[in-house]
Specification:
Blueprint lengths: L7 H7 L1 H19 L17 H4 L6 H7 L4 H19 L1 H12 L3 H12 L6 H11 L6 H8 L13 H29 L3 H9 L4 H12 L1 H13 L7 H6 L6 H4 L2 H10 L4 H27 L7
Helix pairs in contact: 4-17, 5-10, 6-10, 7-10, 13-17, 16-17
């Protein structure tokens, strides 16, 4: 006789206590993530706050065409791609490298101190971090300028945050410093889950610590690395918002700091062009979704994917 499958509704009824626990989280996502998506309609309208969604005239892809033909389009796309690529190429492997180093520390107390120090910057707001960076790079008693002058490398203080040539390096370095510790938590947890007997067997076979990392540790955390690489590639056009907005206060830096998010904020909110700003943001979201699907398809070849 064929085995009767339990109805989905029957299974849900049996798990009513678990469903009740997850209900607030589902409701939160619906209210604050899905319901506001109704606002993307503005991208296809000449939205008027007094007329609302229903009375505002529909204009189709007008605002997308305006964005694609705007003088700033290619400059914004260049800044977005370059800054995102730098954050990905430098910021993505940095937590993995830190997790490998932390795993090699044998003194438990020292290891906890290093972990705590590396995690703390993540919990600082970008307002505090930008002020901290600004004080270090300041021309008036800034730590870096004082050090360079003491070493005889410069004669006069350098205003680093007013020179476009230095901005990308400052931005990426600050992001890595802020997030490297918190990003290493997942990788360190995956490393801790590796069976110690595998390391013992490798040591007996004569493998050095470096070879153990290369032959045992990295393959063990490969699924986690692939998972986060998929998410990072899908997030490629998210070059940043708060960090750029706070670090690039000088108008001189606009040409090399203006990315999709800051442009949408500056033009859409600052100039009250709500429909245009929404179209810019929707364009970025569509490209990000496409990149996520492509990254997942690439990862599927290695047997690891999100779906």
């Amino acid at each position: 006789m064929p085995v009767r499958t339990t109805s989905r509704w029957v299974r849900l009824a049996k798990q009513w206590d678990l469903q009740l626990m997850v209900f607030p989280a589902v409701l939160f996502i619906i209210v604050f993530s899905y319901f506001p998506m109704y606002g993307v309609l503005m991208a296809f309208q000449d939205y008027d706050i007094f007329q609302g969604f229903t009375a505002s005239p529909w204009v189709g892809f007008k605002h997308f065409e305006l964005f694609f033909h705007s003088p700033e389009f290619w400059n914004i796309m260049r800044n977005t791609v370059v800054i995102s690529a730098l954050k990905l190429l430098i910021g993505f492997p940095a937590p993995i490298f830190l997790a490998l180093l932390l795993n090699e520390i044998r003194h438990a107390a020292y290891k906890r101190v290093v972990q705590t120090i590396s995690y703390l910057p993540h919990f600082l707001s970008w307002v505090i971090v930008s002020g901290f960076v600004g004080s270090i790079l300041a021309t008036d008693n800034g730590s870096l300028n004082m050090l360079l002058q003491k070493l005889g490398q410069v004669d006069e203080p350098i205003n680093f945050l007013s020179i476009p040539h230095y901005f990308w390096a400052i931005l990426v370095t600050t992001n890595v410093w802020k997030e490297i510790g918190f990003g290493s938590i997942v990788y360190l947890a995956a490393i801790v889950g590796v069976n110690p007997e595998v390391y013992e067997a490798a040591s007996i076979d004569g493998a050095s610590r470096f070879k153990q990392i290369y032959r045992v540790t990295l393959p063990a955390i490969k699924p986690v690395i692939i998972l986060f690489s998929i998410l990072s590639i899908g997030d490629l056009l998210n070059a940043g918002f708060e960090d750029i907005l706070l670090l690039a206060k000088n108008p001189i830096l606009l040409d090399i700091s203006d990315v999709i998010d800051t442009y949408a904020y500056r033009v859409g909110i600052g100039s009250y062009r709500y429909s245009y700003g929404t179209a810019v943001g929707l364009f970025k979201s569509i490209i990000s979704i496409a990149l996520l699907f492509l990254a997942n398809r690439w990862a599927r070849r290695s047997g690891q994917s999100l779906w």
